[in-house]
Specification:
The structure holds two protein chains of two kinds. By secondary structure, chain A is of the alpha/beta class. Chain A is built from five helices and six strands; from the N terminus they run αβαβαβαβββα. Chain A has a five-stranded mixed β-sheet with strand order 3-2-1-4-5, sandwiched between helices. In chain A, helix 4 crosses helix 5. Chain B has two domains: 84 residues, Sandwich (ATP Synthase, domain 1); 54 residues. Chain B is globular, with a radius of gyration of 16 Å. Helix content of chain B is 29%, strand content 41%. In chain B, strands 1, 2, 3, 4, 5, 6, 7, 8 and 9 form a nine-stranded mixed β-sheet that branches. In chain B, helix 1 packs antiparallel against helix 2. Classes of the chains: A alpha/beta, B alpha+beta.
């Protein structure tokens, strides 16, 4: 028969854990709502920028931009990896880091050299413990991210790409927010812009000032900044959604556990009373 | 007067989407005025003022940071990292960000990358001040 005191203590401990998970769930859902609005507000800017770039690329497939053509095979790959600043978010951090690690292994297997820009404390921790070259790391930036952070990182990425001929491409590993219960970690190519929609036969004469190349090259940093900023806010929304789900499950589990323990406690209590009664009755009988 | 659809898009919101009569923007090649039926066009915007003549003839001025303007058949779009209407600018905040930018320029003296970024920040702050009517002189003269 389990000790009454022990069960009581366990119930208390589960209850206090439940208070924490419940509070974290509430915090995550309010942060999630704000993050989701931010992620949605970032969409039109990115779409418009991409559309104009695609139009310029479609107009003249031979135009000269360093950002469009593949330069080397199996060269260095720059990975921008976005994870969270905190844990307790279900599989959020491990999923995105797993994808990044798989990509790093793949690049290495081909003889290339992976370089990482980790964003978020968890990514910084992960890569600083491993044998990977870190270009620059950013932590605790996601919650208050602005487009200027995106521009900062975009500048770093673009100047690195321009300076190093051996850099094959730049990729972004982040978590795509699909729905409140589904977030998918993915790896996406950023530079070079190889998958610009094909050359459309419809050539519409557009006047570019000063030139199509200049407008395009102006758009690239804006596009990369928009992309990175979008990925950061989207990952943050995903993190909050994942944490909310994880904490919701934890709270549910704690409720179940408390129910089970209460049942056990009541049984034990009942057992003790019954035993006492039997002893009294037995004792009384013996006296007669 | 004929009107056309005009949009101002920034990374955090759509500042404006509606019918207008005329848009005057500052590009790297000089000021351009856009009326309904303008030819397809795209240019790089400098940090500066954007003047919009609304459907009802009212004039509104916005402070716009670096970006791109694009004119297509269906609409004209301004894409910029930041944009605010003159009346929405808080001069105190703009002044603070100007001082902040000056401090950053001081701190980034030896780093060309950061210096350029700080200079852009200063330009944005000065632009906001001049557009909201609190600046002294034009952006160019003050920057030199």
């Amino acid at each position: 028969m389990p000790n009454l005191k022990d069960i009581k203590r366990r119930i208390h401990s589960v209850e206090s854990t439940m208070q924490i998970t419940k509070a974290m769930e509430l915090v995550a859902s309010s942060k999630f709502r704000r993050a989701k609005d931010r992620a949605e507000a970032a969409q039109p800017f990115f779409e418009q920028t991409y559309k104009l770039m695609a139009e310029i690329a479609a107009e003249d497939p031979y135009f000269n931009s360093v950002f469009v053509h593949k330069r080397v095979e199996n060269g260095a790959v720059l990975l921008v990896v976005i994870a969270g600043d905190r844990g307790l978010a279900g599989g959020f951090n491990s999923n995105v880091l797993k994808i990044a690690q798989a990509r790093i292994d793949e690049v290495r297997a081909k003889g290339g050299n992976p370089i990482v820009i980790p964003i978020g404390q968890k990514a910084v921790d992960y890569f600083s413990r491993r044998d990977v070259k870190i270009l620059r790391s950013y932590d605790h930036v996601a919650e208050r991210a602005s487009i200027y952070l995106g521009m900062d990182i975009a500048d770093l990425v673009i100047s690195t790409y321009k300076r190093h001929e051996s850099l094959q491409n730049v990729e972004l590993v982040f978590t795509n927010y699909v729905s409140p219960i589904s977030q998918v970690a993915q790896c996406m190519n950023v530079i070079p812009l190889t998958r610009m929609p094909g050359t459309s036969p419809r050539r519409c004469a557009v006047e570019y000032e000063p030139s199509p190349e200049a407008v395009f090259d102006k758009l690239v940093p804006q596009y990369v900044a928009g992309l990175i900023y979008g990925a950061i806010v989207e990952s943050f929304a995903s993190e909050q959604a994942a944490r909310r789900t994880a904490m919701e499950n934890a709270t549910d589990n704690a409720t179940d556990m408390i129910d089970k323990l209460s049942l056990q406690y009541n049984r034990a209590r009942q057992g003790a009373i019954t035993q006492e009664l039997t002893e009294i009755v037995g004792g009384a009988n013996a006296l007669e | 007067m004929n009107t056309f659809r005009f949009m101002i898009v920034t990374p955090d919101r759509i500042l404006f989407d509606g019918q207008v009569q005329e848009v005057i923007a500052r590009t790297t090649e000089g000021d351009v005025g856009i009326l309904a039926g303008h030819t397809r066009y795209a240019a790089i915007l400098k940090t500066g003022a954007l003047t919009v003549k609304m459907e009802n003839g009212d004039k509104r001025i916005a402070a716009v940071a670096e970006g791109v303007i694009k004119v297509s058949d269906e609409k004209t779009t301004v894409m910029s990292s930041a944009a605010e209407w003159a009346e929405d600018i808080d001069p105190d905040w703009a002044e603070r960000s100007r001082q902040d930018a000056l401090a950053k320029i001081e701190a980034a003296k030896d780093e060309p990358d950061r210096l350029e970024r700080a200079n852009l920040k200063l330009q944005r702050a000065l632009n906001r001040l001049s557009v909201s009517g609190h600046g002294t002189g034009t952006l160019e003269s003050k920057h030199k």
